[in-house]
Write a structure and sequence with these properties.
Number of domains of chain A: 2
Number of strands of chain A: 5
Largest interface: A-B, 37 and 28 residues
Radius of gyration of chain B: 19 Å
Order of helices and strands of chain A: EEHEEEHHHH
Number of helices of chain A: 5
CATH topology of the largest domain in chain B: Uridine Diphospho-n-acetylenolpyruvylglucosamine Reductase, domain 3
Shape of chain A: globular
Largest sheet of chain A: 5 strands, mixed
Number of helices of chain B: 12
Structural class of chain A: alpha+beta
Distance between the termini of chain B: 56 Å
Radius of gyration of chain A: 17 Å
CATH class of the largest domain in chain A: Alpha Beta
Oligomer: heterodimer
Strand content of chain B: 15-25%
Number of domains of chain B: 3
CATH superfamily of the largest domain in chain A: Beta-grasp domain
Largest sheet of chain B: 5 strands, antiparallel
CATH architecture of the largest domain in chain B: 2-Layer Sandwich
Order of helices and strands of chain B: EHEHEEEHHHHHHEEHEEEEEEEHHH
Strand content of chain A: 5-15%
Number of strands of chain B: 14
Chain lengths: ~170, ~290
Amino acid sequence: MAEGRLKAEDRQFIPITFTLNGRAQEIQVEPHELLIDVIRNRFGFTGTKRSCDVQVCGACTVLVDGQPVSSCTYLAFEALGHDVLTIEGLAKNGKLHPLQEAFIEHGGLQCGFCTPGMILAAKSLLEQNANPTREEIIHFMEGNICRCTGYKKILESIQAAAKTLRQQSSGV
Amino acid sequence: MLRRFRLEEPESVKEACELLARHGESARIYAGGTELLLAMKEGLIQYERLINVKKITGLDQVKLENGTIRIGALTPHRKLENDPVLKQKLPAFVRMEHHVANVRVREVGTLGGNLCFAEPHADPGTLLMVLGAKLVAERASSRREIPAERFFVDAYETCLEADELLTDIHVPALPERAGAAYLKFGYLERPSVGVGLFIAWDQDAAIAEARIAVGCAGPKPKRVEEAEGLLKGKSARDAASALAQAGEIAGRAADAIGDLHGSAEYKEHIVGVLLKRAFQQISEQRSSKSSR
């Protein structure tokens, strides 16, 4: 297997434009840079957590065009032309998103490390399916791991947020 | 941490194959990256160049043509689990895709990447074998079709040549009076055992053809023709005892390896259990179809 060591003059910089939490960004990245590092180190959005680093746990979940991806295993150059959302982009004008409110109200977290990923994954689910069954929530969320809560409170939080969002969209 | 590499972004299959031919083992195809990047981050493999094939258009579509479903190798799992053609023609494939890894992996990972990386604990290869799928591999100036059961050579190893690119997966639509199922079991992120089954019945409701494949338990998914023969010609009633025997043979044929996912003996046993359940599932679908 090739050693894969490149000389400094072989370095490659790729200009990318993308949207991060609603703001247009223009940066240069090297091919090997991971989205999680760009988000955390260049933009300071440390709500995106690195944990398992192998796409199993979901702590690094961000939304790309509304779909959940593991930013720990997503090359940053792939963000070109896309809309990236991290937990920091969820509150609007200082007002928390209904999912954030529901997780607080229903105790959907303890240590909080998995919470940004949980909430972003749940947001993606509820945008595609406003009224998911218990089984649909469990299936969608099975790649997001929590070592504190035992999931019951997380499930309740998502169900409560789903109800709030449905009421909001129907203008009740 | 990923080591530095250079990125190539070919816009045609020919260009991609030429890059492969030029750079040999120092380069590797990159599609979704869900498996490749993990191995690279761990430092298990390193490349000077990754060849991103996602700029090549037309390789992420599902089409039905003359009774064959053509799946572009770059189609992500998430698109496959929601594809209307597959939902109608190959529900067993959709069910399998619905349970590949987790939603984030399915969003980015592609069917072709999954097959080419040949991780032993993967789902699609096992089912594709019993569905009679053919994998289309292209070179700059040639093209060949590889039956799914000949594609996998060993763990992480396929029969693709160094300058070949997997472009399409061709799956025949299920014939009348036939059904397929893929069942898996595991308690870690990846499955311990996966079993694929295809059954076709004749007009008298006897089994006209059976195809069995086992995956995850050993280094590569494989067809078990020896076990298939036991089911042929059996009526629904006689199938039960033949299935138990077929399960034992398939379990032994799986080349099960004892590891974190379970002991070899345990995996062999699970093969038999899953085979019975797969048969049950296909039979139930058949009776619900005929009662409609």
